[in-house]
Specification:
alpha/beta; 249 residues; 7 helices
C-alpha cells in the first residue's frame, strides 16, 4: 500500500469512528460547540435595558438550538411551561435544586408575583455576582434567596413549596437523594418537576439517572405524586392530598 493510500485509509477510518461516536453521544458535539461562546457571549452582563416582566421579556436568555443554548439551559416548551405554572400561583413558594448560571432562577423570579419567593441551592454556582446584579437591576432581588451548599443538606420544610424543581447532579444516586430529601416539601396540590428526566417529545435531552428516578416516583409513590404529561425533558408530578406517614422519632 502506498503512503497516500495509507493516509486516505486512516482518514476514512477516523471519520467513520467519529461519526459512530457522535451518533451514539451527540452531547459531545453540543458541548464542544457551546463552551467557547458561553463565557464570552452569554451572561447576565448582557441583560437588556427594558423591564423584565413577562415571558417574552426573558427570551434573550434562550437560543435557537441545542448548540447555542444560553443562560437558560432548557428548551422553549420547558421554559414556557414553568413560567406559566409559576405565573398561575399566587405568592408561589419555589425551591430550585441546581441553578448553574442562574437562568431558571431568573425565570422563576420574573414569573412570580410580588408575594412569591424563590429559594435556590447549588453546590458550585457560576457567575453569582452577575446574577445578583441582574436581579437587583430588575427589581427582583427581594424575591430570591441564593444558597450555596449541598442540596441534600439544605433544610426541607414539609408541605411548604408550591413548586420543587430538581435540576442538580443528574446521576441516579444524586437525583434519588434529591428526591428523597425534598419529596415532603411540596404542598398538596403543588408540583414536583425533574429536569432532563423524561422524553416527552423527540429530541428531548434526558439523562438516564433522572429518568430512572422519575419512573421510580411514578411507580412507588403514586399515592403521593400523580404523574402529569411530560413536557419535553421535564417529568411533572402533582402532589396529592394524602399525608405522608409520620416520621418515627
Amino acid at each position: 500500500m502506498s503512503a497516500s493510500c495509507g493516509r486516505q485509509f486512516l482518514r476514512k477510518l477516523w471519520r467513520g469512528l467519529l461519526v459512530l461516536a457522535l451518533r451514539g453521544h451527540p452531547e459531545i458535539a453540543l458541548d464542544a460547540l457551546r463552551k467557547p461562546i458561553w463565557d464570552e457571549q452569554y451572561s447576565f452582563a448582557a441583560i437588556p435595558e427594558y423591564p423584565q416582566h413577562n415571558f417574552e421579556d426573558i427570551t434573550w436568555m434562550l437560543a435557537s438550538n441545542p448548540t447555542n443554548k444560553a443562560l437558560l439551559i432548557m428548551e422553549l416548551d420547558e421554559a414556557a411551561f414553568l413560567f406559566r405554572l409559576v405565573r398561575s400561583i399566587p405568592s408561589a413558594q419555589i425551591m430550585e435544586i441546581g441553578r448553574g448560571r442562574g437562568g431558571s432562577t431568573f425565570l422563576f423570579a420574573v414569573a412570580g408575583d410580588s408575594g412569591s419567593t424563590v429559594t435556590s441551592v447549588d453546590i458550585e454556582p457560576r457567575n453569582e455576582d452577575l446574577l445578583r446584579a441582574a436581579l437587583e437591576k430588575s427589581g427582583l432581588a427581594h424575591k430570591v434567596h441564593l444558597l450555596t451548599g449541598n442540596s441534600h443538606e439544605a433544610p426541607a420544610r414539609e408541605d411548604h413549596y408550591e413548586l420543587v424543581f430538581i435540576d442538580g447532579d443528574h446521576s441516579r444516586e444524586a437525583v434519588r437523594r434529591d428526591y428523597e430529601h425534598w419529596k415532603r416539601a411540596v404542598r398538596p396540590g403543588g408540583h414536583l418537576t425533574l429536569h432532563n428526566a423524561a422524553v416527552g417529545r423527540p429530541l428531548a435531552q434526558a439523562a438516564g439517572g433522572a429518568i430512572w428516578v422519575a419512573d421510580k416516583v411514578a411507580a412507588e409513590d403514586k399515592d403521593y405524586y400523580r404523574r402529569l404529561p411530560d413536557v419535553g425533558s421535564l417529568a411533572v408530578f402533582s402532589r396529592t392530598t394524602k399525608p405522608w406517614p409520620r416520621v418515627s422519632d
